[in-house]
Amino acid sequence: MTTAADIMHHGARWIPATETLDRAAQLMRELGVGALPVSDPRDPGERMCGIITDRDIVVRCIAAGHDPSRVTAGDLCQGTPRWISTDATVEDVLREMESHQIRRLPVIDDNKRLVGMISEHDLALQLSDDQLAQFVERVYA
């Protein structure tokens, strides 16, 4: 049985909620990623308060006329962060991503530590064409 740990991208990195969006964008560029989990300021690097994406920075900050050097990652975090455990099945991953219409999912180990991220790309490497088409239809609907 294939698990979340088998398909995730290892080495996900946090960004503190207090960090500015210009620094978040720089870190995304350095890491070659489009999203970063944001750590809760009450428990830095241990507890997630959300995720920010490159699209969030552009649409919700820059296009809205805000200065990314003055807006923090925590300012953009909304709602309840979603995650999945390392031992979850691919079906569990799909269900979580589809039901919440999200494209990236942090993976947490038994000690509740961030160990990876699952993206659409990671799923595309694992799913059949039909499964992938169904996933895209449900997430982008």
Descriptive overview:
The protein has about 140 residues and is α/β, with parallel strands linked by helices. It has a single domain (about 5-140), classed as CBS-domain (Roll). The protein has helices spanning about 5, 20-30, 55-60, 75, 90-100, 120-125, 130-140; strands at about 10, 15, 35-40, 50-55, 85, 105-110, 115-120. The strands form 2 sheets. The chain has a 4-stranded mixed β-sheet with strand order 1-7-6-5. It is globular.
Q: What's a quick, concise take on this entry?
A:
Keywords: CBS domain. By secondary structure, the protein is α/β, with parallel strands linked by helices.
What share of the residues lie within helices? 25-40%
Mean of residue pLDDT?
90
Lateral arrangement of strands in the main beta sheet: 1-7-6-5
CATH superfamily: CBS-domain
Alpha carbon gap, first and last residue = 29 Å
Ranges where pLDDT stays below 50 over 5 or more residues in a row are none
CATH topology: CBS-domain
- Rg over C-alpha atoms, rounded to the nearest angstrom: 15 Å
Say how many strands there are.
7
The assigned CATH architecture is: Roll
What is the count of distinct domains?
1
Q: How many individual helices? A: 7
Q: What is the H/E order?
A: HEEHEEHHEHEEHH
Strand percentage lies at 15-25%
